[in-house]
Amino acid sequence: DLGGGRRRDGLNFTPVAPNTEDRVVTPEGYESAVVIRWGDPVLPGAPAFDFDRQTPAAQAKQFGYNNDFCGLVPLNHWNRWLMVSNHEYTTEEFLFKNWDAANPTREQTEIAWAAHGLSVVLVERDHRSGKLVPKVDRHYNRRITATSEFRVTGPAAGSQYLKTSADPTGTKVLGTLNNCAGGVTPWGTILSGEENFNQYFANAGSVTDPVQKARLARYGLSGAASTRKWERFDKRFDVAQEPNEPNRFGWVVEIDPLDPNSTPVKHTALGRFKHEGANVIIARDGRVVAYMGDDERFDYMYKFVSDERYKPGNSRYAREHNKKLLDRGTLYVARFSGDSPVAEIDGTGELPADGEFDGTGQWIPLASGNRSFVDGFTAEEVYVFTRQAADKAGATKMDRPEDVEPNPRNRRVYAALTNNTDRGKAGKEGPTEPNPRVNNRHGHVLELEERRGDNTALTFSWKLLLVCGDPASPDTYFGGYDKTQVSPISCPDNVAFDSHGNLWISTDGNALKSNDGLFAVPVEGRYRGRVKQFLTVPKGAETCGPVVQDEFVLVSVQHPGEIDGASAANPLSHWPDGGTSQPRPAVVVAWKKDKGRICG
Ligand code: FEO
Ligand code: CA
Ligand code: CA
Ligand code: CA
C-alpha cells in the first residue's frame, strides 16, 4: 500500500501486442516454459509419451488431454504445491492419425476415457531457473478419469433420477466428464465443473415420454449416435438403455488432493447444469458462498450459501467438516434489473443516460435441503433439473456465463460472459442492460456487489466493467478508461485475482483474429478498466486456468493447433515440441527474468 490507503496496482509490464505466432509470447523482461504437457508422466511407471503408440494403460498414468482449469494447493513446504488440472475433452482427430469417425476402435475409446478427468501433480519451483518442475510423486500424484469412482452427496444423492442398472443406489458414479473450470477452496480441495456432458450421450432422440424428452432437450441432449460413439463400448452412454445416466453428470465435483485415497464427490446441492466452475468465498459470518455460471447462451448465474460455518485450520477435524459444507445450504439463481432506458450498446458509442450499464438484482432461492421454492418442482427435481426450475423462477438470461468468481480483496464478484451471437436474433431475446450487445461476438465482464458487501445477501448491485472487443470500435466499453490506452480483448472466459486484487482474464475464441491470451485489469482507482495483455498462447489454442502468484503465473494452453482443416494427419501447430511434432496441450509457467514480483 502507498500512503493514504491508496494501493498501487503493480501492473508495470509492457503489454504484448496481438499476434498469430505459434508460441507463447510474454512481455519484455518475462520468460515462460512448459510445466507439463499431454502424455507426460504423472504416476510412477508411466511410459514416455509416444504419439504413435498410445495405449489406455499408458494414458491412465500420463497427463490427460486438453487441460483447462489449473489450481495450486500449497504443501507444507516453501516451494512445493499440488497442481490440479482438468482434462476437459478429447478431439480424436488430433489424438489419432488413423482416426475414422465412423469406426472408432475400443482401444481408441479407452484412451479417450483415460485422457479425460483430472491430474494431480506435485510441482516444485526451481528458484534458479524460475521454472516449475513436475515430480512423479508416489504419494500425492493421481489420475482421475472417465471411469474413476465418485460418490454422490447432498440432497439429491440416491434420487430416483440418478439410479441406473449398474448403480441402483443412485450414489456411485463412474467418472467425470468435460471438466472445464473450477476453483481452489479455502480448505484446500478442488472444485471442478462438469460442463458440456451432453455430447457424450447417444440416442436421446429415441425417448418418447414428453416430460423426459423436455428435460433432456433443456440440457442439449437429442439425436441419435454421439460424435465419439462411446455408446458402442459402454451401454451407459446410450440413453435408450440407461435413461438416467446423463443425470449423473453436469455437477460440481470436489476432490481432495491432500488425501490421495479419498473418493471424489459430486455435489448435488450445487445444482445440475453445464457448470463452468465454482468459486468459494467465506462470508463475514463464516458461511461459505459458491458462485457458479451455466455456460450456455441465455443461461444463468447461480450461487450457493452453506448452512454451516467454515472451521479454520488444517486439522483433520476442520477439513472433514469443511468438506461437507457444500452438501447443506440454499441454491439461488440471479435476476438482474437495469436502471436505464437505453439498454443497447451499438455503433453510436452512446452510453445509457446515467453513463453506465448498471442496475440492481436479486438472488432467487430455488431449493434448500429437501425444501423446494419453485412451484411444480420437488427439491430433488430442482437439483437434478436445475435449468428448468430456474426458467420457472424467472432468472435472467445471460450471454454464456463462464467463470463467476469473488475477488478476495473487495468481495465483489466478477463474471465472464464470453459471447452470445444469438443475442437479438429473430425469436431470441434482444439486448438488456446486463447483456447490452446484439450479436455479442466479443463478450463482456460484469461486476456484482452484494448488499453491504455480504456474500450471503439476497440482493446486489451490478455494473459492467468491460464490454469487450476492439477498443477503437464504439460498441466497446473499458470501465470508462481511455480506450486508446488499452489492449484489445475478446471472449473472456476464466478469471483470477492477484494479491493486489487486480482482475486477470483469459480468453477463448478471440473474434479479433489474433491469438487468445491472458490480460490484467485494475478494478479500483484511476486505472480501473485499463486492460493490458500479459501473454498470448500459440495459434488455435485457448488460454485458461490462470493462476496468478506473486512470483509466477500459470496458464493452461488448451487445444493448440485446433484450426479449421487441421488434424493429426495435418498438424497446423507444432507447439510446444517444435519440428514436425503434433501439438500438445500443456500448462505453462511465466515469470519475471529478474525473479521479481509479477505484479510489483
Ligand atoms: Fe469449457 Fe465454458 O468453457
Ligand atoms: Ca444504467
Ligand atoms: Ca471455459
Ligand atoms: Ca469458453
UniProtKB/TrEMBL annotation:
It holds the Pfam family PhoX. It comes from the Bacteria. Residues 422-431 have a biased composition (Basic and acidic residues). InterPro entries: PhoX, TAT_signal. Keywords: Membrane, Transmembrane, Transmembrane helix. PANTHER family: DUF839 DOMAIN-CONTAINING PROTEIN, SLR8030 PROTEIN. This is Phosphatase. The lineage of its organism: Bacteria, Bacillati, Actinomycetota, Actinomycetes, Pseudonocardiales.
